[in-house]
Structure formats: structure tokens, C-alpha cells
Amino acid sequence: MAPRAARDGGLERLRLPRVRSSSKSRAVSSARGRHGAPEPADTARQPRSIAGHPMHRDRRCAPRPRRFRAFLAGSSGAAAVEFAILGLVFTMLLCFVVEIGMTMLMQSTLNEAAQAASRLIRTGSVQQAGGQPAPFQAALCAKVKLLMDCAQVRYDVIAGDRFATLPIGVQTDADSQLVNTRFVPGSAGQNVVVQVGYTRSLYFPILKDVMGHHGNLLILSTVVFQNEPY
Q: How far apart are CA 82 and CA 179, in angstroms?
């Protein structure tokens, strides 16, 4: 297709597209117009190094931090130090939870055993068998033998006509063991107080000065009732 033509004074001229000159080309042309030749590259202005700047300091000349400051700022071994600080507290807390859990389990077992053995006194089974503690002790051991030593389970049984006159309370020795125990099951219609105790040794020596007495803890269960008219 032929290019468009424009008529101007009877002459036909072709419209040619304009070519835009860039700033770089204008700079080169102006340099050639002034000096006749472009400025050589080796004589061009080079950027100044920052080493000569007054605000620049060489790291080798900077003052080094002191050893104590470097030690405080260092983070190597921080996890080991934190564990050493909190490890003892966490261990004591874990031991305390285990001891409390075992004590509560033994307390619940001893309560159930005391109630089961006291029923033999309340119904007159022990009195009709001669008033001896053998049936009562056998009933206790049948309930606690899985967690406790039957030889270490001690009991105190007293009876009276009025609860106000009964000397409720137990006596213990230096090892928290029940001493001066009695076994008086009473007769029909009398009021009876049964106290069963077991002294357990703590598993963890670290808690012997915190819980119990000389590393021993007394677990005591008390049952109060009135004998049936058997």
C-alpha cells in the first residue's frame, strides 16, 4: 500500500515518522558539538569510595565489647540454664503430685475397709464371736491388702452410752504409729467410735521434710455409729 502524500504548494512530499531521540543520544551529540569527540571513558568521573567519608569507621578500629557484656548477650546454652533453674521445681511438683495421688487412693481404700469392718461390730457379729478382734482385723485386711501391709494397720475401738463421754482421739509415737489402742466393741444399743490408722512412708526422700513426720504420713479413718439391737 502506498504511503499517504500531502500536497504543499503543488509539491508532493511523503510524511515520514518522527524518531524521538533519547537523552543519551542528545548528550552524545551535544558533546560532539562542543568538543568534536565524546569524552573518553578513562577520564570520566569515578565515584568516591566510602572509606574516605568522615562518618565511615573501619570495624577493625571499632572498640570491642567487654567479655562480660558479650557473655550476657550470648544465647548459646540458654536452654540448658533455663532447664537447670526450672528442672528442680518441676521435679518436686511431679513428686508431690504422685505422693498426693497415692495418699488419696490409700485414704479411700482405708475408709471403705473401716466401714466394712465396723459393720461386723454394729450387727453384733464380733460380740457374738466372743468380742475378739480377729474377725474385725480379717475384714480390714481383706480390703487393704493390695495397697497396704496388714501388719501396719492399727485400730482403736471404744464404746459408751453417750457420744459426749467417749474419749475420741488417738495417740501416736515418733514414727506416726498408733499406740495405746483399745478394742471395746460395746453391747447392743451402745455408741461406738472406730478409728483405723495406717502409717505410710513417702516414696521420694526430697519430700520427707515437707510432708509427714520424719518421712512418715499417718492416714486415719473414723467411723461413728450405734450398735443395732441384736
A: 48
